[in-house]
Structures are given as C-alpha cells and as structure tokens.
C-alpha cells in the first residue's frame, strides 16, 4: 500500500471532517451539504496540480476557514447550484 504524504493526509482529514459536518445538519439539508462538499473537492482537485504544494496549502487553509463557518450550529442550510446538481447526475451515471 502506498504511503500518503502529510499534505495528502491533511486533505483527506478535511474531506472527512466536511462530510461529518454534513451529517450534523437537519436531515432535509444533509444531501445539499454532502453534494456541496463532494462537488467542491472534486472540481477543485481537478483544477490544481498535485505538485503545486503552495496552491494545495492555500486551498487547505481556505477550506478550513470555510468549514468552520459551516460547522456553526446556526447554519442550517446551504445553496446548491444547478451546475452542482448536473455534476451529481453526470457523476452518478458514470458510476452506475
């Protein structure tokens, strides 16, 4: 099995933390939060080179700040665009 770098572990930890945050939200909003997290990570990761450490570190800091806002219990819902729904539908069709 391949060893993960510290940066890779940090990205995965942020992703897991974001998915856990989605499960703390009202049941009606959980799918929207989950879609938001998945879409954001997938589209951002495809636009950044794995070798661009500075950009990855910047995105990690930005993601942690954004997640801290969403983890606030006062945040009950999030906005999901049509583009995100289309991406989800296309991704589901590719995998099933």
TrEMBL record:
CDD domains: Complex1_LYR_SDHAF1_LYRM8. Keywords: Chaperone, Mitochondrion. The keyword Mitochondrion applies. It holds the Pfam family Complex1_LYR. The keyword Methyltransferase does not apply. GO terms for cellular component: mitochondrial matrix. Coiled coil: none annotated. It is found in: Mitochondrion matrix. Residues 10-68 form the Complex 1 LYR protein domain. One of its GO terms (biological process) is mitochondrial respiratory chain complex II assembly. Its main location: mitochondrion. Belongs to the complex I LYR family. SDHAF1 subfamily. This is Complex 1 LYR protein domain-containing protein. The lineage of its organism: Eukaryota, Fungi, Dikarya, Basidiomycota, Agaricomycotina.
């Amino acid at each position: 099995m391949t060893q993960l770098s510290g940066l890779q572990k940090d990205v995965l930890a942020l992703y897991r933390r974001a998915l856990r945050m989605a499960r703390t939200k009202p049941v009606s909003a959980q799918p929207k939060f989950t879609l938001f997290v998945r879409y954001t990570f997938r589209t951002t990761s495809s636009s950044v080179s794995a070798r661009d450490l500075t950009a990855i570190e910047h995105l990690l800091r930005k993601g942690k700040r954004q997640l801290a806002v969403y983890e606030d219990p006062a945040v009950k819902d999030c906005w999901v665009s049509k583009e995100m729904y289309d991406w989800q539908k296309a991704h589901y069709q590719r995998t099933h």
